C-alpha cells in the first residue's frame, strides 16, 4: 500500500509523527494512491493529535497523528544554565578554592593560610589544605582514602561539599584547570570573613517585609535553584514576582557568591528600563526571597514556541533593546553570561526586559577577563569552551545565537540525528567549536551579515568586541540602521508586537507547566535548618528606596 512507505517518509520530512496501530494489507488496493494523498494533505492541517479510522473502499486503517513543531523548532525549548565547578589538578589531587573560618595551615609550606574570601585550596578527596600559590608544588600523591586530615591542618567549615566524585563522561561537568596555568591574578567576590554562628543565634530574621506581607497567587517559573511566584503585596495590592531560593541548596562558597552577585545586579538594574529591577529581599531560616518586578507579557521562549520564527523587523527591535541592556551592564563591569530566550521578557507594551542575573560576573574593568566555565550549553561562546580567559565578548556571541533563533526558528547548532553519541553535550560543544554556521538563504543580506558578525568564533573579530568602539560598531551596522537609538533608549519607539493580556495578571503568557503547579512552599525540615550556617546570609535584607517612596505616595 502506498502509505506504508512513501507517504510516511514524506510526513516525517514535514516534521510530524505517525503511528500505524493496525497493519496494512499485504496487497495494495487499486486506485488508493490519489485518495491517500488527499487524506494526508488534509491531516497535515490538523493542529493537535488525533486517532482516526480511515475507510478507503474495502480497507480500514487506524492511524494516530501527532502534530509536532517541525524541524525548525526542535531546539526551541527551555534549558537551564549552570556553572561547572573549577577544580585544580596537581599530582593526583583535585583542589577546590575554599573559605576557611578557623585557623588553617598549608600542607606544603606549613605557614598559616590567611586572607579574605576563599583564601586557599582543599583537595576534595584527601582534604589537604594549601595556599593558592602552593598547590602546584605539592609533592605528596593524593590518597583518596585518607582516614584523617594532616595534623597541621584544621578542616574547612563547609564539609557538606567535600564528597565530590570524579565526573563521568555523562556528568554535569567539572571544569578542570591545568596545573601549569598561572593563577596569580585570581579574584574572589566573597564578603569579609565572619565567625561561624550555628542556627539562629547569629542572624536576625527580616524585620521589614516578610512572607506574611504577600499573597501567593501562582507559580510562573522554575529553575535549577529557585522557584518564581506571582505575588501581591497586601498593603497596596501591587503585583510582583518573587524568586524563592532554598538555603539548603546554597551550601557552597560559590553558590553564596552568586546569590550575593544576583542581588547586587538586581539593585543596579532598577535604574535601567530594559532590565528587571529589585523591590526587596528578605529571608526565613530556610529560604531566601527576592521580590522583583513582574513583567506580564511572557518571555521570548513562550512566544517563539507559538510563532516558530519572527519577522526580521521584530528581531531587530528586540535585539536593539537587548544591546542597550547589555551595554548598560558592561559599562558597570558586569558580564551577563546567560542571555537566552527564557531570560528575555516582554512587558505589556512589547518592550523587552532581561532577567535572572545568577550567572553574572561583577567587577571587570577595561581589559579584565575571567575564566569560569558557565552558561546555558547552546549559548556558550567558543572561547569559554576552549578554556580561554574571556570578557564581555561572550554576551555578544549569545546575542548572535538568540538572533539566529528568532529569525531562523531554530538553533544554529541543531543536531538532528538518531545517533545517541551525537546527542550529547560534548558533541554540541564540538559543533560550536568546529562546525561552520550556515545562515538560512531566506534571510536578508543585512541579517546574514549581522549574524556572521556576532557569531564569529574569534572574539577579537566579533561584532561589538573592539575596545572603545564595540557598541558604536553595533549601532552603526547596516542591520540596525533603521533604529533610532535615542528614542529606543527612552522606550519611545513603538514595539512591533504587543502581548495579549486577557486577565488581571497576564498568566496566559506563561507556560502552563509552571502555572499549573500548586502554589505552596514545602514544610521546613528542622534537621536541615540546623545544618545551615545562617551567618552566611547576614545582610541579605534590602528594600529599594525608590520603589518604597513610590509605594508610599500611592
UniProtKB/TrEMBL annotation:
Keywords: ATP-binding, Kinase, Metal-binding, Nucleotide-binding, Phosphoprotein, Serine/threonine-protein kinase, Transferase, Zinc, Zinc-finger. ATP binds at residues 220-228, 243, 247. It is an enzyme of class 2 (transferase). Its EC number is 2.7.11.13. Residues 92-142 form the Phorbol-ester/DAG-type domain. GO terms for molecular function: ATP binding; diacylglycerol-dependent serine/threonine kinase activity; zinc ion binding. InterPro entries: AGC-kinase_C (IPR000961), aPKC_zeta (IPR034662), C1-like_sf (IPR046349), DAG/PE-bd (IPR020454), Kinase-like_dom_sf (IPR011009), PKC (IPR012233), PKC_DAG/PE (IPR002219), Pkinase_C (IPR017892). The active site is at residue 338. Residues 481-552 form the AGC-kinase C-terminal domain. Residues 214-480 form the Protein kinase domain. Gene3D superfamilies: 3.30.60.20, Phosphorylase Kinase, domain 1, Transferase(Phosphotransferase) domain 1. Signal peptide: none annotated. It holds the Pfam family Pkinase. Belongs to the protein kinase superfamily. AGC Ser/Thr protein kinase family. PKC subfamily. This is protein kinase C. It comes from Muntiacus muntjak.
